[in-house]
Write a structure and sequence with these properties.
CATH superfamily of the largest domain: Response regulator
Mean pLDDT: 91
Structural class: alpha/beta
Order of helices and strands: EHEHEHEHEHHHHEEEE
Strand order of the largest sheet: 3-4-5-8-9
Number of strands: 9
Distance between the termini: 27 Å
Oligomer: single chain
CATH topology of the largest domain: Rossmann fold
Largest sheet: 5 strands, mixed
Radius of gyration: 20 Å
């Protein structure tokens, strides 16, 4: 299941990738209602009933579709194994102050970049940035939590994370680029840079010619821990 905004991604990227592994979904659904519309929950509930009738035992949720799916399926008795292609959205659902039936996530697996926030903060390259240039400029970044940030509470890590990653990327480009700086030389540097240690990631990003110009951020798998009510990263 995907949101309407991700329909092209679903058909152009996800379905061909599944086909490469010899997998053919028995049903595919695209949420037509706006994701923020309460009607979307009922629409997702209808998809859950349709999937159950088709005999689906696993459901792959694309991008931000996890929240709508979870809110819909908890209204039913259907309990397939959920696979989240991007686990950050379902984390916000788990932490919703309104509360939800987390039993629907039993056995769920999420794929995402290295996390959560505490792991990202403690990663050695992130610590070098926090304790080095940020500290030198009088910017103190306290260790974040993996839970929701209370409204109105400063969250310095949310700013430090992209800042440290962007500076690491810039340093990598400047180290690789020839003497003359310009669009063409920067683009060439990105295609030649290869592995680049990146703050908040235990594994390097790998830059190269398109489609690898975004660094191919390493992906980890996260299993839902029903006792903790959180997604925990696998060791391997």
């Amino acid at each position: 299941m995907a949101l309407a905004a991700d329909e092209a991604f679903l058909h152009d990227r996800i379905e061909p990738a599944l086909e490469e592994f010899g997998l053919s979904p028995i049903d595919v659904a695209v949420l037509e209602s706006p994701a923020t519309d309460p009607v979307s929950i009922e629409e997702a509930k209808g998809f859950a009933e349709r999937f159950e009738a088709a005999g689906a035992t696993q459901v792959l949720l694309i991008a931000q579709a996890g929240i709508n799916w979870a809110s819909g399926v908890e209204k039913t008795s259907y309990r397939p194994k959920m696979l989240f292609a991007g686990s950050s959205s379902i984390t916000s659902w788990i932490n919703d102050a309104a509360g939800h039936d987390l039993s629907i996530l039993e056995g769920a697996v999420g794929a995402d970049i290295y996390g959560g926030r505490v792991n990202q903060f403690r990663e050695p390259n992130m610590q070098l940035c926090v304790a080095g240039p940020l500290k030198a400029h009088g910017i103190d970044i306290p260790e974040p939590t993996d839970g929701p940030v209370p409204p109105g509470t400063p969250d310095p890590f949310s700013s430090a994370l992209p800042a440290c990653k962007n500076m690491a990327l810039l340093e990598g480009l400047l180290t690789t680029v020839p003497d003359a700086l310009g669009y063409d030389t920067f683009r060439a540097a990105a295609e030649e840079m290869g592995d680049l240690p990146m703050p908040s990631s235990e594994r390097p990003y790998r830059y190269g010619a398109p489609p690898h110009s975004d660094g191919d951020a390493p992906i980890s798998l996260f299993d839902f821990d029903s006792a903790k009510g959180t997604f925990e990263r696998r060791d391997t």
